[in-house]
Amino acid sequence: MLAYLGASVAGLAVAPGLRAQTPQATIYARMGDNQRFDAAAVVDLARQLARKPFVPLPNDLPDFFSNLSYEQYVAIKSKQAPIWSGEGRGIAVEPLHRGFVFTNPVDIYLVEDGAVRRVGYNPSQFDYGRPNVPNNIGDIGFSGFRLIATPSEGKPFDFALVQGATFFRAVARGQNFGATARALTLKPADPKGEEFPVFRAFWLERPAPGSNSITVHGLIDSESTSGAVRMTFRPGDMTIIDVETTLFPRVNLDHVGLGGIGSTYFYGPNDRRSADDIRPAVYESSGLQMLNGQGEWLWRPLHNPEALQISAFVDAAPRGFGLLQRDRAYEAFQDDDQRFERRPSLWIEPLGDWGQGSVQLLEIPTDAEINDNILTYWRPKAPMAANSEIAFAYRQYWCWVPPERPPLAAVSATRVGRGTSGRRRRFAIDFSTEALGDNLPADLRSVLTVTPGTFQNLKNWVYPERKTVRVAFELDPGNENACEMRLILEAGGKPISETWLYRWTP
């Protein structure tokens, strides 16, 4: 279960070294320059921060930087070698400049031999790529940092970006950045607006030589809660991040998202509403995979709806969930610039019993592929009480294929198109696995339910040479404006495929 701990009270000494963002923000200075690092002290900082009124981040970024276009912002380059590069530690760090939409300041500290050292901002260390940079900028801090794998053999590669609110991204070797993780999600799709927590400061522990891992401690703050997060990054052919978080709510929290993932789904074979494009599909993730507490594997294809769609998959003690990119062929997208087939899948594995709740899926209408219009997360059933302490942990796998996957036929394609008449829609769902080759069970059958609405012409098409069974049917929604569908392949009275879920809306 999520751990609920009694809040404790401890005094805080203000140490030098942390840039004071406001007079009230001196509480963040617990571990500044020349202080001894203590991981428990980061949690204590968050605990004490929750006892203070929330102070918004300062709006102190010069207009020169806050008004940058995307192209101007990415043209800013560091003149310095990444921190710890050339030391044989396997990982290096590059602080990221503030600007464009990344206006929030965050302080970055290094932990070396147990001592804390603040990374100071110096404008002379950057090439801005344009003239008229203001003089006397001062120390404006950073917007986040980039992590670079520097293996003893093979090429270095950027494997993680931690920047903006509590967002961070990672990739496996050979991938392009895509899905975005959230350290904390608060009140998404709330009528009064979503609340976006922010990172106030980071402490990065210098990796041991050849360790190929780095531990990062972050201080989270928002109007409703504060928190501490410890993230251990291990880059490679599958990049793994262990996340441990402790929250200290200032108020009662009834809508909290754990293990949040954002991504983009613009259009594809099951949703071509916005498909006046030379490319056959545009999406970073093709579907939501879930392994529920009962051991059932579920697959929910994503789509770009005409109105906001919120789905809740009720569960207890979930074993895993994530947004996956299952389409790995160039031909699926034919995009020479974005290369969506190289975007990471992100699988979340809860560590410990997360209790009762639901995997939530938000699908937001979008008319542009640059928008992250997909969000999924675990929502605990029980509210989080003010002045309590809540601890939870999970493991992220940024990968080509998750380490745990169905020992069953998986959905390899979902196609939707016009039906025979009226509002009817034609569906074709492909299930694929080696077991669907030449020795198919004689009693294989497809089991489909539709609520509300009806279906006709259910038929299986067997393709042993492709190790695929296609299930085709026609949905008749009647006068309904939403139909929930559930489909599975069975043989011998047992499932031989994961469960396909879909919500049809006009």
Automatic annotation (TrEMBL):
The protein's annotated pathway: Glycan metabolism; osmoregulated periplasmic glucan (OPG) biosynthesis
Pfam families listed in its UniProt record: MdoG
Residue stretches making up the Glucan biosynthesis periplasmic MdoG C-terminal domain: 37-504
UniProt keyword annotations, A-Z: Periplasm
Domain of life of the organism encoding this protein: Bacteria
A GO molecular function held by the record: carbohydrate binding
GO cellular component: outer membrane-bounded periplasmic space
Location(s) in or outside the cell: Periplasm
Protein family (similarity comment): Belongs to the OpgD/OpgG family.
Entry protein name: Glucans biosynthesis protein
Organism: Microvirga subterranea
